[in-house]
Write a structure and sequence with these properties.
heterodimer; A: 199 residues; alpha/beta; Pyruvate-ferredoxin Oxidoreductase, domain 3; B: alpha/beta; Rossmann fold; seven-stranded mixed beta sheet
Chain lengths: 199, 601
């Protein structure tokens, strides 16, 4: 009985929109006929702490948490928050990282340094499966830095060719207020384009 | 229709489908979303209560009048509500009455880690434990049925990984509850808990437990799955999900009702499998009871940890032992800089705690965002126990230290926390002639749990304007003569006021004004200047402003000198997009190097 569950870990900093991104994934994979589970720790995320969401889909999903070391896809909204979960990834994991640094307090205070060249560390282990996307920059060029999360989702969507663009668009229009539909659909497309443009 | 719902949303949906008309709560992670969600259903009167005890009393009153009613809280909330809860087990209910209690294994956002299943055994009431969102909805509805069928309050147990996890839920229609509304004076002997009546009800409770035990054997959500007859696992809730994930081929007895236990079903399971393992989070609750029934278990808390939360790999590691294959370690995560939660840029708490730090006071703290002041670099909060404890502890410390403690002790608590549990200890400080200074940090909301209204904000849960508690009049009525107000952003005046009050041998209350939560939408704080910036001409790199721990201020290491030739090791930098312009850093800068920025510049 085949019950392969696919594990997606989303990581970032409070306020970056990781939770919306995981809601988009849930919307899409439910529509595609899968069982889904999603888990996150709320409470203090708004206070600049790190945020992670475990997202799983398959025929039947039991645990809401991804077993350690079993991540198939990592979608990271910030460089350090990508690195924090490098051990959670399978050797075959595919990774999308937003090219953004948000300094944690110890770095701000000059007591610790921000790790150097995080993409290189990832490439050492995951080779061509590492994709760095300039989510912030692309979103700003569209006029709103807040759409960076959807740029990342656009890039990430490339891993799932069986999910048609209409389903992603459907998720965006169902989950977001009407006045920002156009912006986010553009952000999604640009993200997809940026991914195809290489890492 | 199918929809992806969070566990808490599913509980709210279940309450609506069950025909609930009254729901009360005090917010607390991970339970807060239930009431916020219920407020969206117009058929239900949903309200924030000042504390969990009041929530249980109000909801149980509604149940006595025949309505289906619910009270929701986090695990420590049931400690507060335990007084009415324990005796409501005696009176029973009329309309269905359910208490949702959400545990926080691994203490993601709480002051302790307790296992709420113990309350069910202690109070002699049934408890259901869902493991995903569909079960959250189903079990909520079933809890109301059980409540009415057995005339008892029912506990529904949430926990972080169930309450805050999303999964697919099949939606159904709202039903009309079977019990008619109305109060009956002839039922008084059931509801008046005086000794003669209590003794009658005491016996009924025991009879009810026997009936519930028989019911547990046929309860449709106590499910036996016989796969491999060699090993059988008894589990429930999230612990079942983790175990099933890593050992799909074992046999299972999954308990949807964790109290009372199904004795016949257990006998049946022990007869069908060779070895039984109990996998449960926190206390050996099921294990102890199963052993007391005379069964031998193969493994339980000898391998499964009795603290923190379980995860699939913790269960796998515990049960596989040396056969567990550790995942590959590529970096040491402990070497990475941590990203702990922090007060927001511009938060009025940061300003106040900077003053307290400078005064060198021992600060008795309380439950709220301001507890973050205990962390470096501020480290200006020195105790935190439970809602309202700050005031009593500060005044108790003063009783021990006498005159020696004058000028050294104060209590801090938020506006919502004060209304929850701070009024009685302030009254007691005056009555018993204590001298504690209590500072009410009025940020106009319940901040930490996500900005909920309360009796001091002037609005209800549904957004209607309401009475607003006047803290000054309230504490004056309690007998406090020295009541002061401070603007926490004015460090000099705040320090002076707090110092005077701490040195006075009399109860006093200081209320902060002008400090709404930075995330508040209705009472958005506007500062005089849009942001501040650092003059690299004069910044000496003394790092005093970094002691504030403001996320907008960072250190830039670069050996050099000021314009007038003073050597320095670096300068500070203010991130304009994060800085709301509160100006606290400009007040603490000794070299006048932090200057107001201009809008649009």
């Amino acid at each position: 009985m085949d019950n392969k569950v696919t594990n997606i870990l989303l990581s970032g900093v409070g306020g970056q929109g990781a939770i919306l991104a995981s809601n988009i994934l849930a919307h899409v994979f439910v529509e595609a006929g899968y069982d889904v589970k999603k888990s996150e720790v709320h409470g203090m995320a708004q206070r600049g702490g790190d945020v992670t969401t475990h997202f799983r889909f398959g025929r039947k999903v039991y645990s809401p948490l991804i077993p350690y070391g079993e991540v198939d896809f990592l979608l990271a909204f910030e460089l350090l928050e990508a690195l924090r979960y490098i051990n959670h990834c399978k050797d075959s994991a595919r990774i999308v990282i937003n090219d953004q640094r948000i300094l944690p307090p110890a770095v701000n205070l000059g007591q610790a340094s921000y790790p150097a060249d995080i993409p290189a560390t990832f490439r050492k282990y995951f080779k061509e499966n590492v994709h760095v996307v300039k989510g912030q920059e692309i979103a700003l060029s569209l006029g709103n830095a807040q759409a960076a999360n959807v740029v990342l989702v656009g890039a990430f969507s490339t891993f799932f060719p069986e999910i048609k663009d209409d389903m992603w668009k459907g998720a965006l229009t169902d989950l977001l207020p009407k006045k920002i539909h156009e912006l986010n659909i553009k952000a999604f497309k640009e993200g997809k384009k940026a991914f195809k443009g290489g890492s | 229709m199918k929809k992806v719902l969070q566990g808490n949303e599913a509980i709210a949906r279940g309450a609506w489908e069950a025909g609930v008309t009254v729901a009360c709560a005090y917010p607390g992670t991970p339970s807060s979303e239930i009431l916020a969600e219920i407020a969206g259903y117009k058929e239900i009167t949903a309200q924030w209560s000042p504390n969990e005890k009041v929530a249980v009393e109000v909801a149980s009153g509604a149940a006595l009048a025949g309505a289906r009613a619910m009270a929701c809280m986090k695990h420590v909330g049931l400690n507060v509500a335990s007084d009415p809860f324990m005796t409501l087990a005696y009176t029973g209910i009329k309309g269905g009455f359910v208490i949702v209690v959400a545990d926080d294994p691994n203490v993601h956002s709480s002051q302790n880690e307790q296992d709420s299943r113990n309350w069910a055994r202690f109070a002699k009431v049934p408890m259901l434990e869902p493991g995903d969102a569909q079960e959250c909805k189903d079990f909520t509805k079933m809890a109301f049925e059980i409540s009415e069928q057995f005339d008892t309050p029912v506990l529904l147990k949430g926990e972080t990984r169930v309450s805050h996890s999303d999964s697919i839920v099949e939606l159904e229609e709202r039903m009309v509850p079977p019990v008619a509304l109305g109060l009956d004076r002839k039922e008084a002997t059931k509801y008046v808990m005086v000794p003669a009546n209590v003794r009658v009800r005491r016996k009924i409770i025991e009879e009810r437990m026997r009936k519930l035990e028989a019911y547990a054997d046929v309860f449709s959500r106590n499910v036996m799955e016989i796969n491999d007859p060699e090993i059988g696992v008894i589990s429930s809730g999230a612990a079942y999900m983790y175990t099933k994930e890593v050992f799909p081929d074992y046999s299972y007895l999954k308990l949807g009702m964790v109290w009372p236990l199904p004795k016949k079903l257990l006998a049946d399971f022990f007869a069908k499998v060779k070895k039984v393992i109990v996998v449960e989070e926190l206390d050996p609750f099921l294990e102890t009871e199963i052993k007391a029934l005379g069964y031998k278990i193969f493994h339980g808390k000898d391998l499964i940890p009795n603290m923190y939360e379980l995860t699939p790999e913790i269960v796998a590691k515990a049960l596989l032992g040396k056969k567990y294959k550790e995942p590959k370690i590529r970096i040491k995560p402990e070497d990475l800089p941590r990203r702990p939660p922090n007060m927001c840029p511009g938060c009025s708490h940061r300003a106040l705690f900077y003053s307290l730090k400078k005064l060198g006071a021992f600060v008795f703290g309380d439950i709220g965002c301001y507890t973050l002041a205990a962390a470096p670099p501020l480290q200006a909060l020195h105790s935190c126990v439970c809602m309202g404890a700050s005031v009593g502890q500060a005044y108790g410390a003063g009783k021990a230290l006498g005159k020696e403690g004058l000028g050294k002790i104060c209590a801090v608590l938020g506006d919502s926390t004060f209304l929850h549990g701070g009024i009685a200890p302030v009254m007691d400080t005056v009555y018993n002639k204590g001298y504690a200074t209590s500072i009410i940090l009025d940020n106009r909301t319940t901040g930490m749990t996500g900005l909920q209204e309360h009796a001091g904000t002037g609005y209800t849960l549904s957004g209607e304007p309401a009475n607003m508690v006047d803290y000054e009049k309230l504490v004056r009525a309690l007998g406090v003569k020295r009541v002061r107000k401070v603007d926490p952003y004015n460090v000099k005046n705040t320090m002076k006021t707090i110092k005077e009050e701490m040195e006075t041998d009399e109860a006093s209350v200081i209320i902060t004004r002008n400090g709404p939560c930075m995330l508040h939408r209705r009472e958005k704080r506007r500062f005089e200047n849009p942001y501040f910036l650092v003059s690299t001409d004069t910044c000496r790199g003394c790092k005093v402003c970094l002691e504030l721990g403001c996320p907008a201020i960072s250190w830039v290491a670069a050996e050099g000198a000021t314009k007038d030739g003073k050597k320095r090791k670096g300068t500070v930098f203010i991130n304009r997009t994060l800085c709301p312009g509160c100006g606290l850093c400009a007040q603490v800068c000794k070299f006048k190097s932090i200057l107001p920025g201009k809008a649009g510049a």
